[in-house]
Each structure stands twice: as C-alpha cells, then as structure tokens.
Amino acid sequence: MMKKPLAWLQLSVLVAAMTVAAVHSFPLTDKDLESEENMWNLYERWRAVYTVSRDLAEKKSKFEVFKANARYIHEFNKKKDVTYKLGLNKFSDMTSDEFTAKYTGALPEADDDVVDSFNILSTQPLVHGGEDAPLAWDWRDHGAVTRVKDQGKCGSCWAFSVIGSVEGINAIRTGNLLTLSEQQVLDCSSAGDCNGGVTFDAFDLIIQNGTTLDQNGSPPYYPAYVARKEQCRFDPNKPPVIKIDGKHRGNKADEQALKLGVLTQPVSVRIKSNSLEFHHYHEGVFDGPCGPQFDHAVVVVGYGETQDGVHYWIVKNSWNESWGERGYIRMLRDIEDKGGMCGIATYPMYPDMNPPAATFAAYH
Ligand SMILES: *[C@@H]1O[C@H](CO)[C@@H](O)[C@H](O)[C@H]1NC(C)=O
Ligand SMILES: *[C@@H]1O[C@H](CO)[C@@H](O)[C@H](O)[C@H]1NC(C)=O
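Above: inputs. Below: predicted complex with 2-acetamido-2-deoxy-beta-D-glucopyranose.
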C-alpha cells in the first residue's frame, strides 16, 4: 500500500530533475578563457554546436566579439547577488546592436500615446482577478500556448507576438490550440517586413482577412516560415480561416492591469531588449539591464513568484527553444517603474474574439 505514493514521488522527482537538466547551457570554464588558444578552441566548439558559419575575414572580428561576450558572461555568472544567469547561445559572436538589427523588429507606433477606451480593469477576466487572483497563472498549463518558434535572421518579432496572442485567444474561445502562420502575417500584412513592423497594426490583417494554420500544423497549410517576406499566398476560401473580432490597447504602464489581462488571455507586448544581458539570458528572473528603446515584441503567457517571493512575468520569445528557459524568459514583476521591467507593462495589446465567456466555466 505504501509503495504506490512513493513510486509516484520518485517519478516526479525524476521528472523534475530531468526538466532542470534540459536547460543546459554551453559550458564555459576559467580554463577556456585562460589563453588566446583556449579561447579560439572554445569559439570553434561553439560554432560547431550552433552551426554558425563565418568566412575568414568575418571570423576575426566575430572572434573578438565572442571573446568579450564570453568573458563578460563568465564574470557575470560568478556574481552572488543576482537573480538570473547568462549563457553562451547562438547569438554570442554578435554585438548587441548587430543582434538587435537582425533579430527583433518592433517599430514604434504612430499613435503610441493614444489611449483606447477599452479598460481591461472593467472586463471580466477569465480567471478570478482582484483579491481572488491566483498567485501564479501559466497559460501553457491550460492549452493556450503553442511551441516556441524561431523568427530567424528577420525583424519579424511583431508577427510572432501577434500570432502568439491570437493562438492564445483562439484556444481559449474554441478549446482548440492551433499553430498559426507567422509567414502568412509577414507575407500578407502591410504592417511590416523583415526590417520591422508595427505590432498593433498587424492585428488588422487578422480582423479583416484572417490567418490560417502554419505548415507545421495539422493538416499542413500555409508554407513554412522562411524568415523572408514572400508573395502573399493566403486563400480566404480554404478553411480554416481564423479571424479576430477586434483589437485593444490595454491600460498603459499598469502592472496590475497587465496581470488581469494575463488572467484573461496571453498578451502581446513590446519591450526594450537591446542589452547583452537580455540577449544572453539563460535562466532565472531577469531584472535588467534593458535596452534604451522599445525594439522587440513578445507574448506574456503567465506570471508567478519564486520560493523567495520574487514576482515574475512568464514571457514567450521567438528566438528558438535553445534561448533562455526553453525559449522563455521570466522577467521581474511589480517593480517601482510603472512601465514594468524593460517596459513590459507599457504597451499591452489584446486581440478580441467572440463569443465572449463561452468557455469561462472551464477555467474556474
Ligand atoms: C531551433 O534551432 C535548431 C538548430 O538550429 C533548429 O534545428 C530548430 O528547428 C529551431 N527551432 C525552431 C522552432 O525553429
Ligand atoms: C486583406 O486582403 C486584401 C487582398 O489581398 C489586401 O488588399 C488587404 O490589404 C488585406 N487587409 C489587410 C488589413 O492587410
């Protein structure tokens, strides 16, 4: 009789251990940094793991950047008073500016300071808000978040942020988690291209024309993501066509409102991500430094707090599952700056899908 619970306990400990082990980073030791030769060997090993090809001329200057980044990361990780760790990743031989130019892409919006009449605080969140709000909420545990994707060398974060939030509201309203097509948004929306896009404007395509399943969905549909803007190949007569009924800007610079928003659905947000620390985030709760301006768009899929009581947001990025915590970053929540960590609470955007309240009961 005693055997069963024990076996379960052992199993869950094992699963937990495996889960932690899966977040490995590229190893980096004092010895690697000791000499130029060791550094070069490290760089070659790193290039093999991340299959980064560089031509000879490029390699020399990239190696200099890599060395500086590796040294910085190694020193940073020796600090005791920090809540997160850095790691070498596939971006490690680029400077932060070079990286931002190629892998982000959220452009400023013409009407950034327009206040929407929509007030998230007056809506009915799906999960109890206010005093009753749960200490933690994670849409990944409630079937509203697809796998982590990879925008590649294209400033299309705006399309990934929009699609991530639409996948969320669609799953919540219909009970069906569909993997939708960023390539279709990149191809068919006039809101942007690989040089960046205006996130809020990109929702208009899905309001007017709709989007559809990604190639990797089942059945395969819109051609797979290629990190380039192509001819629009969307056929509005070929189902499924997923549309939203509207879009809203949430309350600006208000983490309490964002929390209520997250209890309602995954939320598209823009952040200031241009820092070496953000780019090399590996695990833990990120508390800056952030970049100087809004340059990246991501999706907030939940929130929680650590055993030490540190509050965080759970953020889905589009830099491959090899980045951060299997593609996610936890960012410090409830800070003094009203805009939130890296501005996360500054420009929340919510796709709206009817019918409302259809599946409320399932989440209470
Ligand atoms: C992440 O990167 C790996 C290695 O380059 C690649 O095989 C994989 O397809 C990428 N994941 C996604 C979601 O694109
Ligand atoms: C909807 O599709 C039409 C026809 O392809 C296109 O001209 C229009 O720009 C699209 N709407 C949006 C908001 O992108």
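The pocket of 2-acetamido-2-deoxy-beta-D-glucopyranose (ligand 2) is lined by residues 189-190, 204-205, 208-209 (CB under 6 Å).
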